[in-house]
Design goal:
homodimer, 17 helices, metal-binding (chains A, B), magnesium (chains A, B), Polyprenyl_synt_CS (chains A, B), geranylgeranyl diphosphate synthase activity (chains A, B)
């Protein structure tokens, strides 16, 4: 049993599968580390918020829409590009980014389906970043989510171009005025395109990936501030864009959007700290990708830099910061984002 | 002297450098193949339209704005991504796409500077496509515009991610509402983002590049319709987006935009046919990139498929079709686009 898990949660909370099955905890005693969560889930609803069911339902909605976004037989000459895009996009991700986007839209006053186009866009950008990151001259990964990576299932040119095309499709999908209700004004669409562009380029994923690669395999360890810089760009930026674009579509005020941005930055860093911990403590079979890779590749991670215990303490701190930002919102409406933060903290894959 | 050139133009038209120096022809006799061009350039202006000066001025405006779009010291941790983006973006392209975009904006009723953000975006997308196309597992090019390609000057991860970041920056630049005059409504911004996304992904550059790669080195030659499919996606789509987005920003009517779309498709294909011809007839020194590469790589080109003479006839036909679409516009306003079509047809690099 890892100290991170035992510090946060009762023993029986950690051994079951699937990983979502214990949300919410079934005994009041188990809530002792989630005071706000207890309030939001128990004081305003008859039954506790069912995060497992929530994620299953939203992921199904997202998966169906993603599947439709890439028609199989669109081109007379070649379907290869579509096949590769479809292969990677439908390879079984947890859809955390689009679900965050839908939840933020609702919290900001909209309906979840309003944000579906931009929610899909965040998953397309995420998938594209994985496809490029997996290439042989990058992280050189053969497995992703238990399946062959795109360049192994197809080839390198196909993976490169399918990634490029997914990035373009993200912007096409998010900018399509007719896919939003009339309540969503065009200036909001322009804003969300700007957010997506920011999170995927020099202020986000691409910058984070490059600094990450250039920091791997050095003789000296990467200092903590640089590690945080990498993760804030590589991981947090896109989670931030998912939450913020959802809130923009939902009609959130500037103050609400600022708070949700803060929430997203914390869970983004949290996501990466937990990823580092899982890479060290789980098997490849459990993760569906090559485990222990960070150790083997001399990649700097939080556990390597500050140890496993302090990494877990840092994760707890980030979780607290994320939830702090949700104060001031209606607790029932905020429940999905509270539980999603917990999910990111306590996931086992 | 090539038959293409002599078929189109008097001998003295072809030997001088720089390649823009003969626009416009200085003797009335030289206009015999450009009846509409003569009308537009001579009947409505005191002096013939000076395409050379026009392109120098517009390229300078574009270059200055591109240079400003990628600040040198933006990030505390790493400037590598910016350096690589800046290196490739400022490596001396002719800026045909942004110039077309500015010209179309003016023709549609706007002022040229209105379209500058989206004009820059077209050049960023173009540069990104070259950076990815030059990678070793793609076209494997060491030289581009007389300089080392990005992955040779930096390395492969940097070229990949700088390309990704340029694509994102294109969308960030084009979607920035505050960079347009108030006359440009947000719904037009959403439309241009859609056009840029369309031209760069499955309906444009990425699809064209993939089908091109998969059609190279086969035992059977690529049929003509497939070759056209490749070029319409790989080259025409982005030229089309440049012209169409310019026209949208300028406030063009749907009919005007349709005509300009037709113009752009023709010059896009023309651009590629001429590129194929130049690869066969020019030296590496003249082109600033590896010449004869298409022949060496078993790449199907127009000259290989239909011969050099018929390729030149096809180019003439496309030039005529492009100019046909400009009828109905005010001839003086249309002059830049007429001359730009000529420039694409008669360029020597």
């Amino acid at each position: 049993m890892s100290s991170f898990s035992s510090h946060f949660l009762p023993t029986q909370f950690l051994v079951s599968k699937p990983h979502l099955s214990q949300f919410p905890p079934t005994s009041p005693a188990l809530y002792r580390r989630f005071p706000r969560l207890v309030m939001s889930a128990q004081s305003t609803t008859a039954t506790p918020f069912d995060i497992k069911q929530y994620m299953i339902e939203k992921a199904a909605m997202v998966n169906q829409a993603l599947d439709s976004a890439i028609p199989a037989k669109a081109f007379p000459q070649s379907n290869l590009l579509h096949e590769a895009m479809h292969y990677s996009l439908m390879a079984g991700g947890k859809r955390i980014r689009p679900i965050l986007c839908l939840a933020a839209c609702k919290l900001a006053g909209g309906l979840e389906p309003w944000a579906l186009p931009v929610a899909l866009a965040t998953e397309m950008i995420h998938t594209m970043s994985l496809m490029h990151d997996d290439l042989p001259f990058m992280d050189n990964d053969d497995l992703r989510r238990g399946k062959l990576t795109c360049h192994k299932a197809f080839d390198e040119p196909t993976a490169l171009l399918a990634g490029d095309a997914l990035l373009s499709l993200a912007f096409k999908t998010a900018s399509n005025l007719s896919s939003y209700p009339v309540d969503v004004s065009p200036d909001r669409i322009a804003r969300i395109v700007g957010e997506l562009a920011r999170c995927s380029g020099t202020e986000g994923v691409a910058e984070g990936q490059l600094v990450d690669i250039k920091s791997t395999g050095l003789s000296e360890p990467v200092p903590l501030d640089k590690l945080e810089y990498i993760h804030l760009h590589k991981t947090s930026a896109l989670l931030e864009a998912a939450v913020v674009t959802g809130a923009i579509i939902g009609g959130g005020s500037d103050e609400q959007i600022d708070r949700l941005r803060g929430y997203a930055r914390s869970i983004g860093l949290l996501f990466q700290v937990v990823d580092d911990i899982l890479d060290l403590t789980k098997s490849s079979e459990e993760l569906g990708k090559t485990a222990g890779k960070d150790l083997a590749s001399d990649k700097t991670t939080y556990p390597k830099l500050i140890g496993l215990d302090k990494s877990r303490e840092f994760a707890e701190e980030l979780l607290g910061q994320a939830k702090e930002q949700l104060n001031g919102f209606d607790s029932e409406s905020a429940a999905p984002l509270v539980y999603l933060a917990n999910y990111i903290a306590y996931r086992q894959i």
